[in-house]
């Protein structure tokens, strides 16, 4: 049921609403449509969490994983476990950067022969925000 | 005759509508963080804020003044001896318990139909859910907490409800 209180309320509601749009469009209310369009377009490139691209480099005495973090946020590599490898300490993969991570190898011979036959199983543990991703790869 | 309880509950309504505090905090693994009240919304997805939320907030901010105007008018009529009760804050505060139930239903019946996901049913607290997706194990803590201010709002809502039945 409509009464004076609700009518006053609605009038005040629209005055405050129009004032806010007026200020946010720098006094040009015809830009409100553009404001709506832009705000909806912003959603088009959300919701595909890009996984970091991993490349392995082997030097004479080092195993280096190169992580290309294409996301807009940082990812923490917590662990890289396998039969002959481990990660000494967690590494932060900065957004839009390539980070090289040196992995500790406990047994070079075993590691190399497994990598040569493409049968080395390594498990990466990533952390982004409060979420943990555990991913196994065969290299 | 003046309705003092009704006047008191309308003053409380105005305090609630003027307060900038959020009522509830919600987080899905930190990937999606939502803080909200009836008059204010904060959404952070993958570390970014979105312009659409600002636009929604223009409406919610204006709504504050609708609630203040109606409450102030009913405060005036209660002083003059005319009874108008206003149960908006009561409905809003009681229905906040429905939010986690809606999220549960979304997970259970929409996301659950194409993802092997088990979402625990809870209203307040932290629960960790595990998802197995193409060889990866994803574990995310789901957090859902009312703010301290929410309990005040719930109190105001209850006073509103009482003022509906006690004619003083």
Task: Report on this structure.
The complex is a heterodimer of chains A (139) and B (168). Chain A has three helices and eight strands; from the N terminus they run H-H-E-E-E-E-E-E-H-E-E. By secondary structure, chain A is of the alpha+beta class. In chain A, a hairpin with a 4-residue loop joins strand 1 and strand 2. The model of chain A has no long low-confidence stretch (mean pLDDT 84). Chain B has 168 residues and is an alpha+beta fold. In chain B, strands 4-3-2-1-6-5 form a six-stranded antiparallel beta sheet. In chain B, strand 5 and strand 6 form a beta hairpin. In chain B, helix 1 packs antiparallel against helix 2 and helix 1 runs antiparallel to helix 5. In chain B, 26% of the residues are buried. The model of chain B has no long low-confidence stretch (mean pLDDT 87). Classes of the chains: A alpha+beta (139), B alpha+beta (168). At the A-B interface, helix 1, helix 2 and strand 8 of A face helix 2 and strand 6 of B.
Summarize the structure.
Chain A has 139 residues and is an alpha+beta fold. Chain A is 29% helix and 37% strand.
What distance separates the N and C termini of chain A?
A: 70 Å
Q: Largest beta sheet of chain A, briefly?
A: 4 strands, antiparallel
**What proportion of the residues of chain A is helical, as a percent range?**
25-40%
| Helix/strand class of chain A | alpha+beta
Uncertain runs of chain A: none
Mean pLDDT of chain A: 84
Strand-residue fraction of chain A?
Answer: 35-45%
Order of H and E elements of chain A: HHEEEEEEHEE
- On the 0 to 100 scale, the average pLDDT of chain B is 87
Q: What is the oligomeric state here?
A: heterodimer
Uncertain residue ranges of chain B:
none
Helical residue percent band of chain B: 40-55%
Distance between the termini of chain B: 9 Å
- Quickly count the helices of chain A: 3
As laid out across the biggest beta sheet of chain B, the strand order is: 4-3-2-1-6-5
Widest β-sheet, arrangement of strands of chain A: 1-2-6-4
């Amino acid at each position: 049921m409509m009464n004076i209180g609700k009518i006053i309320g609605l009038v005040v509601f629209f005055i405050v609403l129009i004032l806010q749009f007026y200020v946010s469009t720098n006094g040009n209310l015809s830009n409100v449509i553009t404001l709506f369009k832009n705000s909806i377009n912003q959603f088009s490139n959300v919701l595909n969490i890009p996984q970091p691209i991993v490349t392995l480099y082997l030097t004479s005495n080092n195993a280096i994983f190169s992580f290309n973090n294409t996301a807009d946020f940082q990812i923490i590599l917590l662990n890289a476990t396998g039969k002959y490898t481990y990660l000494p300490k967690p590494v932060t993969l900065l957004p839009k950067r390539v980070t090289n991570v040196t992995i500790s190898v406990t047994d070079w011979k075993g590691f190399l022969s497994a990598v040569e036959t493409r049968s080395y199983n390594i498990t990466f543990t990533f952390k982004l925000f409060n979420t943990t991703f555990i991913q196994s790869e065969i290299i | 005759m003046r309705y003092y309880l009704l006047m008191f509950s309308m003053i409380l309504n105005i305090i609630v509508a003027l307060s900038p505090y959020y009522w509830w905090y919600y987080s899905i693994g930190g990937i999606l963080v939502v803080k909200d009240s009836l008059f204010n919304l904060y959404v952070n997805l993958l570390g970014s804020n979105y312009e659409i939320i600002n636009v929604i907030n223009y409406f919610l901010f204006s709504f504050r003044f609708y609630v203040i105007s109606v409450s102030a008018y009913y405060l005036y009529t209660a002083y003059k001896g005319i009874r108008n009760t206003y149960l908006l804050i009561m409905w809003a505060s009681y229905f906040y318990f429905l939010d986690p139930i809606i999220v549960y239903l979304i997970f259970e019946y929409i996301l659950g139909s194409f993802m092997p996901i088990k979402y625990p049913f809870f209203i307040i607290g932290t629960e960790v859910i595990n998802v197995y997706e193409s060889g990866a194990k994803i574990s995310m803590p789901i957090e859902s907490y009312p703010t301290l201010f929410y309990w005040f709002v719930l109190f105001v809502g209850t006073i509103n409800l009482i003022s509906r039945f006690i004619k003083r």
